[in-house]
């Protein structure tokens, strides 16, 4: 790596707060309406990446546990009341869940902060934001409909029904555990599906608490099942099992590709929300202060452990050095440290393995000719903390410009003109999101139309609304979450043709009376 003395120091680490005195959260699995341990009684623990102490423990599911959960969901779908309920009845349950989340928001936020390492303030925002997702899904439970065709002749009426697809396997990641589950589960339930949920083994607490809320809200036994454990034991069977009708996964592109391949053997439907290498594209005529703040927010929110992270900035060559200096200065003001500290904006990295992967990517960038302009090192302190990092002199062909790093690392790339910016933006395998900063609406629309991305922000970044669909192009995934189509994704269409009156089109002569 370059000489550390030539790199401006990042923000000093905030002092550790006194962690709340509490026993570790004792999570359980929920299968067929019963809270249970694993078949062999084994459990695993999760330690706080910021503090080092045990935060929570969970049953380590066996293949028998997964089989039981799938069978419970299958029975609940084939013979239970949930798929047959009126939309208004399912909506009432979803609204009750939303109220339950409100009531337990602080408890859930604290556990999420301790398990993920994210600032408590951000965990609070994530948990409380989920309320809106459940409320929106409840509205779709009442409004999702099929079609009717009265244009097929006087003796034919065509009806297109929407029916729940069946049993859905939901696999969620560690970075936004309750939020991403809430982008999936309420919409599957609104459609009338039953589910088996596998949370990340690093961040299972809020999923278990949500299951407690679901039970109290009146979700029937078997409709939602939660199985905790590792991917090969729990996640892989959800992709392979013939009784799972659909798989919805959020995580890395590598794992998503693997699970999609396994699911394809049974021709089951898949929804995959995967990685991103999301560009913010900056033109000289932008609102400078707003842009600089959004760039720093975009890459350091959730410590960059975010599929939507603005981890690369494409900046016009005429302002590239001014931009770099401004962003470095702004980034040095971002408070890093104990996620329980009220001033914290960047907490701990989720695991030692993740931290080492990030550092390895920084080293590869430097070896390829890029230059560290800020940070680039681990803090010498208790906990898994990484300095906010900015990498300059990045060329589009470098790995650091193309590969998802999933950490607080910003790559700065210069471009010559609008078409050059679009070309560079599209020179990755990903296409999740992007942003463009300019006061010229022609420039903004040209970029928005030209960039391969499922979401394009114009003069803003990382805004989101339940009404707007979310998903990516290319290796960033398959399908969309949220929006009015979210419930429809968990349905199958069925065509019903109703003949009216005597049949006139006999293939063979009509039998004599």
Automatic annotation (TrEMBL):
It comes from Paraburkholderia silviterrae. SUPFAM superfamilies: ALDH-like. PANTHER family: ALDEHYDE DEHYDROGENASE-RELATED. The keyword Oxidoreductase applies. Residues 35-496 form the Aldehyde dehydrogenase domain. Belongs to the aldehyde dehydrogenase family. The active site is at 273. GO terms for molecular function: oxidoreductase activity, acting on the aldehyde or oxo group of donors, NAD or NADP as acceptor. InterPro entries: Ald_DH/histidinol_DH, Ald_DH_C, Ald_DH_CS_GLU, Ald_DH_N, Aldehyde_DH_dom. This is Aldehyde dehydrogenase family protein. The keyword Oxidoreductase applies. Keywords: Oxidoreductase. Pfam families: Aldedh.
């Amino acid at each position: 790596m370059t000489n550390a003395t030539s790199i401006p120091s990042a923000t000093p680490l905030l002092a550790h707060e006194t962690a709340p005195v509490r026993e570790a959260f004792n999570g359980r699995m929920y299968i067929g309406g019963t809270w249970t341990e694993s078949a062999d009684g084994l459990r695993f623990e999760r330690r706080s990446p910021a503090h080092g102490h045990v935060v929570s423990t969970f049953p380590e599911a066996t293949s028998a546990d997964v089989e039981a959960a799938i069978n419970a969901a299958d029975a609940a779908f084939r013979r239970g009341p949930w798929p047959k309920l009126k939309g208004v009845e399912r909506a009432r349950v979803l609204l009750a869940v939303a109220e339950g989340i409100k009531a337990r928001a602080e408890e859930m936020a604290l556990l999420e902060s301790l398990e993920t390492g994210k600032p408590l303030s951000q965990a609070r925002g994530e948990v409380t934001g989920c309320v809106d997702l459940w409320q929106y899904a409840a509205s779709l439970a009442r409004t999702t409909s099929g079609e009717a065709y009265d244009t097929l002749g006087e003796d034919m009426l065509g009806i297109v029904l929407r029916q729940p697809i069946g049993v859905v396997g939901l696999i969620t990641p560690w970075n936004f555990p309750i939020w991403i589950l809430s982008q999936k589960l309420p919409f599957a339930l609104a459609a009338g599906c039953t589910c088996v949920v596998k949370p990340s083994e690093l961040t299972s607490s809020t999923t278990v608490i949500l299951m407690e809320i679901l039970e109290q809200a009146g979700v029937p036994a078997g409709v939602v099942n939660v199985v905790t454990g590792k991917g090969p034991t729990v996640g892989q069977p959800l992709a392979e099992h013939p009784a799972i009708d659909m798989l919805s996964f959020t995580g890395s592109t590598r794992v998503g590709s693997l699970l999609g391949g396994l699911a394809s053997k049974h021709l089951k439907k898949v929804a995959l929300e995967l990685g991103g290498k999301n560009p913010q594209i900056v033109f000289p005529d932008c609102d400078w202060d707003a842009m600089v703040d959004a760039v720093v927010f975009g890459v350091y929110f959730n410590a960059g452990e975010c599929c939507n992270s603005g981890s690369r900035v494409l900046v016009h060559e005429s302002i590239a050095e001014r931009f770099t200096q401004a962003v470095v200065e702004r980034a040095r003001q971002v408070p890093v440290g104990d996620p329980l500290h009220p001033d914290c904006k960047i907490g701990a990295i989720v695991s030692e393995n993740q931290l080492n992967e990030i550092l390895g990517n920084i080293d590869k960038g430097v070896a390829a000719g890029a230059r560290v302009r800020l940070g680039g090192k681990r803090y010498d302190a208790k906990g898994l903390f990484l300095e906010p990092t900015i990498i300059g002199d990045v060329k589009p062909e470098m790995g650091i410009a193309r590969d998802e790093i999933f950490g607080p690392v910003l790559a700065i790339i210069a471009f010559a003109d609008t078409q050059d910016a679009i070309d560079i933006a599209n020179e990755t395998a990903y296409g999740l999101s992007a942003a463009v900063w300019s006061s010229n609406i022609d420039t903004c629309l040209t970029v928005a139309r030209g960039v391969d991305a499922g979401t394009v922000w114009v003069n803003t970044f990382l805004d989101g609304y339940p009404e707007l669909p979310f998903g990516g192009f290319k290796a960033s995934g398959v399908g969309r979450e949220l929006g009015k189509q979210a419930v429809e994704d968990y349905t199958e269409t069925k065509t019903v043709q109703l003949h009216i009156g005597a049949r006139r089109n006999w293939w063979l002569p009509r039998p004599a009376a």
